[in-house]
Structures
1.
Amino acid sequence: QYAKRKDARPVSAENSALALTGRSIFAFNADGKTKPSEAMAQNPQLATVPAVKDGHVYDLAPEDFRIDYYSAMNMLDEIKNFFAK
C-alpha cells in the first residue's frame, strides 16, 4: 500500500534506529499506557538514536494518530506548547 506514496515509508523494527535520523522525534502510543519517550529510552536499539539520547522525543496524545481536523489542530497546539518560552 505504500508503494505509490511519496510521503510515507515503511520501516521494519530492526531498521528503526537507522530511520530515525532527525534531531527531534514526535511520537505517540495509541494505547496511551506508555510514554513513547520512555519506551524508546528503554529500548536498547533506540536508546542510541541521537534524539532519544538528547531527550528530544516529544510525547503526543494517543488520539493524535487520527488524521482529521480536530486531531491535527490538537497536535499543533501540543507542538506549540513543547516549544513555548
Note: Helices lie at 16-19, 36-42, 50-53, 69-82.
2.
Amino acid sequence: MGRYTGPVCRLCRRAGQKLYLKGEKCYTPKCPVERRPYPPGQHGTQRRRRLSDRGLQLQEKQKARYIYGLMEQQFQRFFAEAKRQKGVTGENLVKLLESRLDNVVYRLGFADSRRQARQIVRHGHIAVNGRKVDIPSALVRPGDVVGWTARGQKTALFEMAKEQAGSRTLPSWLELDAAAMTGRVTGEPKPEEIGVPFNTASIVEYYSR
C-alpha cells in the first residue's frame, strides 16, 4: 500500500482526536475535528461502535503511523529496531521516531507540520553537520547540527521559518540558534516530555501477537 495522499484532517476525524497533522490550522476554530467531531464518510454521524481489544491496539498503532507519516513496512522496521534495543520497547520506539530528521526539522520550527518538514528534507533544503541530507527517515544523534543548505536559504520557506524562529517551545534535547537558523541535538528524546497522543503499550501488544 502506498503512502496516504488524501486530506490529512480525515485521519484525525477517523482517530477521533487531534493528531496535529495540519500545522497551525489545528490550533484554530477551522480545525475539522472541532467543526465535525465524528468520523468521515456517509455514515460518520452514526454512533461509533465499540472496538475489540485488538481494534483498540490497531487504532493506537495507526495514530502513531499517521503522526509520523510512515507506511506500514517503515513502521514495522522501526518497531523491530526498538524491540532489538535494550530497555522498554515502547520508549525505544518513541525515541527512534522522534530522532527522524523530518521530525527534528518540525520540532525546531523549520516547518509547520511533519508533512511539510518531510518535503523540505526531500527537496534538499536541510543539512546535517554541514552536509545535505535528503532522506527524511535519517536518524540524528546527540551532537548533530541541523541547518539549511545554501539552496534552502533562498526559499520562501526559509524566510517564513526565520520570521517564526523561537516561537515554538523546544524539547530539552534540542537547542536552536535563531540567528544562524541551526539546531543542535543535545541528547536523546525523552518520551515523557514528548506527550505523544497514542499508547505505546498498545502498539507493543499489537505486534506481540
Note: The first helix runs from residue 8 to 15.
3.
Amino acid sequence: LVGSEMCIRDSYGPAPGAAPPGYHGYPQQEPPPPAPREPVGAHEHDGFFLRMGIGFAYLNSKITPSEPVKSDSFSYSGGGLGLGLMLGGTIAPGFVLGGALVSHAASEPKYEDPNGDTETYKDGMMTLASLALFGQYYFDPSSGGYLQALLGFAQADLYHKDSSDDRPRPTGPLFGIGGGYDFWVGEQWSVGPELRVMYGPLKYDKDGAKGDYGATAVTLFFTGTYH
C-alpha cells in the first residue's frame, strides 16, 4: 500500500503543499521577459541641439532724435512674422549653450507722433534681426519645460518702398528672455510653443542724424527641436 501511494504521488505530483514547483515532475516557471528599454539618450535632452521656429511677432520701435535737432520721441509698432534658428550643445544635464539667428518683420506699422496721434505707415516695413548667444535650461532633462536667455547684437531697419539704400540702420546690443515646453514626437524630436521677449537699446548715426532707437520684439513661436 505504501509503495502504491508513492507510485501515485510520483506519477501525479505531490500532495497540495507538500513541495514547491519543480519537484516530482513539475517544471519551474520561466521568469517574464524584461521590459524593452529605450535606446540610450531617447526622450532626453542631451547632446547636439537644433531648433527651428516660426511664429507671430509684435514689434515696437521708440525713436528719440538727438541731432541735428533734439526732439520728443515717436514710435512705430505692428505685428508680423518671426523666424528663428538655434544651434548648440548640452554642456551639463539639461543645460544647452549655443548660437541663435533671429529675425522679425512687420509690414505697414502704425506710426504714433509725440502728441499721440497715429496713422498707418503705408508701404513701410520695420525689421529687427539679431545674432546672439543663448542658454537654455530644462527643469527635467527628460521632460519639456524650459527657460531661455539670449545676449547678442542686433540691427534694425525702418524703410519705405521708396527709401534710399543709404538710410540709417540702428545697431546695438540685444537682450532676450523666454520659455516654453517641448512635447516629444520621436526619440530625439519634439515640438511645442515658445514665448520670447527681446529688447535692444540701439542707436543710429548717419550723415549727421543721430538718436536712440529702442527696439522691442515679443514673439510667440511654434518650434521644432532635434535634441
Note: The CA atoms of residues 61 and 215 lie 5 Å apart.
4.
Amino acid sequence: LGLLLDPVEGTTFFRLQLWRSSWAMIRDHPLLGVGLDNFLYEYRTHYVLPTAWEEFNLSHPHNLIMDSWLRLGLPGLAVFGWLLVAFFRCGWQAYRDLGETSDQLLALGLMGGMVYTVAHGLIDNAYFLVDLAYVFALMLALVQWTKSTAESTVNGGAMSPTASPVN
C-alpha cells in the first residue's frame, strides 16, 4: 500500500514514466494521433523510457485523455469531450425536471457512474475495451431516456414540438 504513492518505484513510478512517454507520442502526432490499437507498437519501439523497460508491452497510456487523443487524434478527443458535456447536461436537466421519482435517482446514479468512469480513466482504461464502451454507450442512452421522460412529464405527457430525443 505504501508503494501506491511512491514516485520512485512501483505502479506510480511506471504510470509517471508511461505518461511522459505518451506525452512525447502526442507531441510527435498531435493532430491525428497514432491510430486505433497502435499505441503498443509505437510505445515499445520508439517511446518507452529506459527507466521503464520492465513494462514495455503496454497497449494504452492508462489515461482517458491521452488514450483518446492518441487513438482518435485531436478531433476524436474533442468529440469525446463533447459527449461528456452533453451527457452531464442531459443528466442534470433530467435530475432537475423529474422531481422526487425513481427516474430522478436513475439520472443521479448515471451521473455518478460517469464521474467514476472518468475518474478511473485518469489512471487506467475507461473506454477502449468492448465491455467499457458498451457500458459507456448504455449510460449515454439511459441518460437521454431519462431526459426524454422528464420532458414528457414537464409537458403533461406529450413531448413539446421543439424537444427531440437527440437534444
Note: Confidence is low (pLDDT under 50) at residues 159-164.
